[in-house]
TrEMBL record:
Coiled coil: none annotated. The chain crosses the membrane at residues 12-32. It holds the Pfam family Neprosin_AP. This is Putative carboxyl-terminal peptidase. The keyword Transmembrane applies. It comes from Thalictrum thalictroides. It comes from the Eukaryota. Keywords: Membrane, Transmembrane, Transmembrane helix.
Length: 423
């Protein structure tokens, strides 16, 4: 009998050891797989960084922590595109639009010339002739994105669609706007002088921007868009600095396009201005006001879309082959502000748009776009006709337009987000 119990104890011990062994073995593949997953992600990020960060002729450390690499123009990310393998860089546009405003015209509103703006990295140096400045992408930048594939890309549905202010659409997209727009014609470019601020962002996954949109096609899956302006985006840049940016897409933000030079597309030719770098200085409440001037237009000869910053800096171009509708012309132009409202704790975000003040507060307090223009089929800059305005929730962010001699067609826009009337 004792022998029987002894054997049974031994048997149960053996069974217990076997069960534990099976359990431990079952854990091994999981930890191995997770280790493999982590190392695969590391490898993917390293490869992506190598694609974006090209060999530099000179490197400049910016006071804000950015690293600016001065890179040979033919080595920039644009030339990773298969269609650009044998592309000859166009060093200047064939034609500039006629009838440019003088951006330094004295304004009756502020009785002084608009103050000049530069980029923060200029304090520590410049890129030599024959190179272009590229803001270096860091590992942390990529890690903040939802995936390596989505790094540097906007989410879908981030375009204001004035014709259908459907509240469901607003809530679904989380993007809110205060814009002026024109539609119904053929447009070959747009220009604006944009007041620069540093709006406060409530959560790191939100952003605030002020830009112009050049749009072609429907608001469906085939939307073409070229965008340029300033933005504060902690997710993209890792800080709350106001930065110059561009964006493009030819399929409504699905697979094509990106911010700045974070994919192949935009070809930069200018050695002075870095896409994605901090703008300095910015406007102060009841203080000095700072503007940037942005012009995007279609070269009538080559068909590429060019961008100019200020009076002096032609930055580069988007080759026409990137687009379907915009290969011909734009069907809508928009100017204004956009924020992401992620509805933290189910309430409206307090992320600011523009200066964070409502339009009626006016100059020195509210943010503005002035001298807004379109480029027509004869390559002339003209005041837009039939300008409409649009905002999803005017008690959160609003827009008010006007017209006068010095500022031409203009509007004030923006707001604080969450407030007693915007819960």
């Amino acid at each position: 009998m004792g022998e029987f119990f002894c054997r049974r104890d031994e048997k149960s011990r053996v069974v217990s050891v076997v069960v534990n062994l099976i359990f431990l073995l079952s854990l091994l593949p999981l930890s191995y797989a997770s280790r493999m997953g982590i190392s695969r992600q590391k490898l993917e990020i390293q490869k992506h960084l190598k694609r974006l960060n090209k060999p530099a002729v000179k490197t400049i450390q910016s006071p804000d922590g950015d690293t600016i690499d001065c890179v040979h123009p033919s080595h920039q990310p644009a030339f990773d595109h298969p269609f650009l393998k044998n592309h000859t860089i166009q060093l200047r546009p064939s034609y500039h639009p006629e009838g440019l405003f003088d951006d330094n015209k004295i304004s009756s509103n502020n009785k002084e010339k608009s103050k000049s703006i530069t980029q923060l990295w200029h304090l520590n140096g410049r890129c030599p002739e024959g190179t272009i400045p590229i803001r270096r992408t860091k590992k942390d930048d990529v890690l903040r994105a939802s995936s390596v594939k989505r790094f540097g890309k906007k989410r879908h549905r981030s375009i204001p669609k004035p014709r259908s202010a459907d509240p469901d659409l607003v809530n679904e997209s989380g993007h809110q706007h205060a814009i002026a727009y024109v539609e119904g014609g053929k447009y070959y470019g747009a220009k604006a002088i944009i007041n620069v601020w540093e709006p406060e962002i409530q959560q790191s996954n939100e952003f605030s921007l002020s830009q112009l949109w050049i749009l072609g096609g429907s608001f469906g899956e085939d939307l073409n868009s070229i965008e340029a302006g300033w933005q504060v985006s902690p997710d993209l840049y890792g800080d709350n600095n106001t930065r110059l940016f561009t964006y493009w897409t030819s399929d409504a933000y699905q697979a094509t396009g990106c911010y700045n030079l974070l994919c192949s597309g935009f070809i930069q030719i200018n050695n002075e201005i870095a896409m994605g770098a901090s703008i300095f200085p910015v406007s102060g409440f009841r203080g000095s006001q700072y503007d940037i001037s942005i012009l995007v237009w279609k070269d009538p000869k080559e068909g590429h879309w060019w961008m100019q910053f200020g009076n002096d800096y032609v930055l580069g171009y988007w080759p026409s082959f990137l687009f379907s509708y915009l290969a011909d012309s734009a069907s809508m132009i928009e100017w204004g502000g956009e924020v992401v409202n992620s509805q933290p704790d189910g309430e409206h975000t307090s992320t600011q748009m523009g200066s964070g003040r409502f339009p009626e507060e006016g100059f020195g307090k509210a943010s503005y776009f002035r001298n807004i223009q379109i480029v027509d089929g004869s390559n002339n800059l003209k005041a837009p006709k039939g300008v409409g305005s649009f905002t999803e929730q005017s008690n959160c962010y609003d827009v008010q337009s006007g017209n006068n001699g010095d500022w031409g067609s203009y509007f004030y826009y923006g707001g604080p987000g969450k407030n007693p009337n915007c819960p």
